[in-house]
Amino acid sequence: MSQTITLYVDGACKGNPGLGGWGAYIITESEEHKICGGEAETTNNRMELTAAIEGVLFCPTDAKLIIWTDSNYVKQGITEWIHGWKKKNWKDVKNPDLWKKLDSVCQGREIEWNWIKGHSGHAGNEMADQLANQGAEEMLQSLKQNANGIDASKKKAEPDWLLNDPFGLDLADAEDLDSPDLLDDDALESEDAVIDTSVASSVEDLSADAEVITMQTTAKNSLHPQIVITPATVHAQGPRQLILDTETTGFYFQDGDRIIEVGAIEMINRKLTGGSIHIYINPKKLVGDSERIHGITDEFLQDKPLYADIADTLFEYLKGAEIIAHNATFDMNFLNMEFTRAGLPTLSSVCDVTDTLAMAKAKHPGQKNSLDALVRRYEIPQRDRTFHGALLDAEILSDVYLAMTGGQVAFDIDALTHSDDPYAQIARGAVQIQPPVILPSETELEEHANWVKQFEEKQGTPCLFVK
């Protein structure tokens, strides 16, 4: 081999699908290269794949490549799952064009694939992330210049959602049902949704999009990224739950340990809304040995805001919700301490708290009930937890909580039909009716049988809706 080249590749997407960008930070033995690009309508996964493809194509074919990506979807796809996809002739695989291209450009090369935790302060990964956002911004500017010529009339056909997600769980589009471990957040996309290929209907829409992109980029990449709040994509009515986790400098808030990261994701009526909040915080003390747990360094936290700077916004986001946490006493003690230091009420005084560790001990007495143990027990697809992260652990805990409480949904009509109108009321009364029995026609029975056959072929399991 003539030389060894290190690549950091990343993708970004405003919406999923939406405006996207890709970036590759390439370090040779003598110089550095930064390349990026974007697409008007794409998905996060496609941008992650494109970044890898373009990065590899940029390098000489005889060089040894060491590639770092924060997408387990890409890393495991190219090193493990792709062999099964080829054997099945790419059946039911999403993004087959890009997977085939990545496979092709990797042929005959010596490549070492590695995963790295995203947004953890690693300089190479952060640079690739900045390049990906730069690619998206450059694409947006190009679209603004050509906004009047965009054809916004075409839409992607809506799929049979019941065939793909019969239980209404909003399952992520796994590239292959034989590949259950789509581990990273980026894999949780829904390419089968109705996609409006129009980028904007006017210059004003594009300007609004530019502001959103700018806000998101600033939140991720500025010197003082205070709070990253992701708005909900699913709008539901009912009691608000926040699955929450924190990372700290140590175990003892009484001894001066501080919070360095907070992550929480929103759930309403047992349905994740897509909303979340994520913050890194400068604790004004060294992280010490805790770095071995969360991987967050003192250098990374140096330019992050103090807790007092973000306390008001975080308190407003959390208050009134039911906080769900694993070993909630630990998280709540730290949060109460931090909010008190900032001159605010304790969080436990304005929120109900559910401790999933206490739930697990009651449900599985005498057994291991750590988050990792529960993931194995409930056969939840595993993520890489070499380092703990607040938002990652919150996402894992949401799966664990739903699995532990399965079948325990309270059918509270008032909660499920909660209205923003304070004067709205629901009238109830006893109604005695004899519902008619409507039998299916022969044609309907035949269509149902065909649907069941398609379901069983796609899912590989017997269908519950046979009769």
TrEMBL record:
Organism: Acinetobacter celticus
Protein's job: Endonuclease that specifically degrades the RNA of RNA-DNA hybrids.
Gene that this polypeptide is encoded by: rnhA
Active site annotation, chain numbering: 388 (proton acceptor)
Location of the RNase H type-1 domain: 1-137
Enzyme Commission (EC) number: 3.1.26.4
Cited InterPro entries: DnaQ (IPR006054), DnaQ_proteo (IPR006309), Ribonucl_H (IPR013520), RNaseH-like_sf (IPR012337), RNaseH_domain (IPR002156), RNaseH_sf (IPR036397), RNaseHI (IPR022892)
Source species, domain of life: Bacteria
Binding site for Mg(2+) 1: 10, 48, 70
Class of this enzyme: hydrolase
Catalytic activity: DNA(n) + a 2'-deoxyribonucleoside 5'-triphosphate = DNA(n+1) + diphosphate; Endonucleolytic cleavage to 5'-phosphomonoester
Residues annotated for a divalent metal cation binding in this entry: 245, 247, 393
Cofactor note: Binds 2 divalent metal cations. Magnesium or manganese. Binds 1 Mg(2+) ion per subunit. May bind a second metal ion at a regulatory site, or after substrate binding.
Record Pfam families: RNase_H, RNase_T
Protein name: Ribonuclease H
Subunit structure: Monomer.
